[in-house]
Amino acid sequence: LCDHCDVTGNCQVGDGVFLASHASILPGMRIGNHAKVGAGSAVVKNVPEHTTVMGIPAKRISTAVPDSRAG
Predict the structure, then answer these.
(1) Of the candidates 55, 48, 50, 7, which has an alpha carbon nearest to the alpha carbon of residue 31?
(2) Is residue 34 a contact partner of residue 64, using CB atoms and an 8 Å limit?
(3) 8 A C-beta contact, residue 64 and residue 50
(4) Residue 19 in this model has a pLDDT that exceeds 80
(5) 51-54/42-43 β-pairing
(6) pLDDT at residue 7 tops 90
(7) How far is CA 56 from CA 23, 40, 51, 52, 53, in A?
(8) Mean pLDDT of the chain, nearest integer
(9) 33 and 18 Cβ atoms separated by less than 8 Å
């Protein structure tokens, strides 16, 4: 996880998650596998897998479709 992020409480952070600098994750939130959280964002809702969120509060910017051929 990011050295300059605020992850509090009972958060669940999935595999391959990218948390940019100064992101804040509120207690009890779940960040799905391979999700991305933009710099300075405040996550107040769960973030689905392969989703990019940004802002205060964090809002969905995009959702990637995983490549089924990847192993």
Answers:
(1) 48
(2) yes
(3) yes
(4) yes
(5) unpaired
(6) no
(7) 10, 8, 16, 14, 10
(8) 89
(9) no
First-last CA distance in the chain: 24
As a whole number of angstroms, the distance between CA 38 and CA 48 comes to 15
Q: Using the structure block, give the residue that is written with the tokens 């959702």.
A: 63
pLDDT range class, residue 1, cuts 50, 70, 90: low
Q: What is the rounded average pLDDT of the residues 19-31?
A: 93
Phi and psi angles of residue 63, each rounded to the nearest 5 degrees, phi first? -130, 125
Length of the chain: 71
pLDDT tops 90 at residue 60: yes
- The b/e string for 14-36 (b: 16+ C-beta within 10 A; e otherwise) is eeebebeeebbbbeebbbbebbb
